[in-house]
Write a structure and sequence with these properties.
Radius of gyration: 18 Å
Helix content: under 10%
Largest sheet: 9 strands, antiparallel
CATH class: Mainly Beta
Mean pLDDT: 97
Strand order of the largest sheet: 8-9-10-11-24-20-19-14-17
Number of strands: 24
Number of domains: 1
CATH topology: Beta-galactosidase, Chain A, domain 5
Number of helices: 1
Shape: globular
């Protein structure tokens, strides 16, 4: 089910499947990717409780092996409506028989979307409802439609400091490498060659990423709070006219190694009955 929220200037449409932001428009103009199945059939995935892949789509917990696909299961789960107002919507996902089979923790993922005078804010609240420490990762994966040639764009990171690129393989697992990211004026120019191998995973960029066109006109800005990594992606080796600017709290699994979930250093962890809140804002 798709649900619309709006104010005097902005309108957003959110699906209860995956709590996915389907469109975000200002005065009738949608800034999000149009979900063209030729390239990418989504628009703003929620990644939970895993980001990327685990090796062989597997991990272990207390000696038992579990199998879960790329980006976990939240993006393909049906959320329930917790609260609906004209300009805001809160959706809720809790553990069920299907999630417990692949992720043996009782949890609550609450996502609130609200519109304000500048755009949209999304608040992600993760709660551990189980009796044990709960490891998890969380990400948001919005894609922005581009109306000019891809090479006309750059992404500006106004708060970048000691930025690094974290290496991943094509199938979105860590390859164990890191390297310094050299940015001129804290900007990264978009080229097709950037995405001929994998997504680009960066740390040390601060909390903001601004999409600019060739004339340095701001197309959109994304501000992430609590997400320590910013990721850029588009369909690899394609002529797709969109760019994803993602926030990741945590990292994927390790290539050629089945990880024990409690030992992964990049996983966030919540004690029983503990919650943690993250947020993101899209302004345009």
């Amino acid at each position: 089910m798709n649900i619309e929220i709006n104010n005097t200037e902005y309108k957003a449409v959110i699906s209860t499947k995956g709590a996915e932001l389907i469109s975000l428009s200002r005065n009738g103009k949608n800034i999000l990717w149009d979900r063209n199945e030729k390239y990418w059939a989504d628009s703003a995935l929620v990644l939970f409780p895993f980001i990327g892949r685990n090796y062989n789509d597997s991990y272990t917990y207390n000696g038992k092996e579990y199998n879960v696909g790329i980006h976990g299961f939240a993006f393909k789960s049906e959320f329930e409506v917790s609260e609906k107002k004209d300009n805001s919507l809160t959706l809720l996902l809790k553990e069920n028989k299907e999630t417990l089979a692949v992720y043996p923790f009782a949890f609550e993922l609450q996502i609130t979307f609200s519109l304000n005078n500048d755009g949209l804010k999304a608040i992600f609240k993760v709660t551990n409802r189980s009796d044990e420490v709960m490891p998890y990762t969380l990400g948001w994966h919005p894609g922005f439609k581009l109306e000019e040639p891809f090479e006309n764009y750059s992404v500006w990171f106004p708060y970048a400091k000691a930025a690094k690129e974290i290496g991943i393989v094509t199938k979105c697992m860590l390859d164990g490498t890191e390297k310094k990211l050299d940015l001129e004026d804290n900007k990264l120019d978009m080229t097709r060659d950037l995405f001929n191998h994998s997504a680009k995973v960066y740390t040390g960029l601060g909390n903001a990423a601004v999409l600019l066109n060739r004339n340095n006109k701001e197309i959109a800005a994304v501000n992430y709070h609590g997400f320590e990594n910013i990721v850029l992606w588009q369909t690899l080796n394609s002529d797709a006219d969109f760019i994803c600017i993602e926030g990741w709290r945590g990292l994927p699994g390790t290539y050629e190694h089945i990880d024990e979930i409690t030992e992964i250093k990049d996983k966030s962890k919540l004690n029983p009955n503990e919650s943690c809140t993250y947020s993101a804002e899209i302004t345009f």
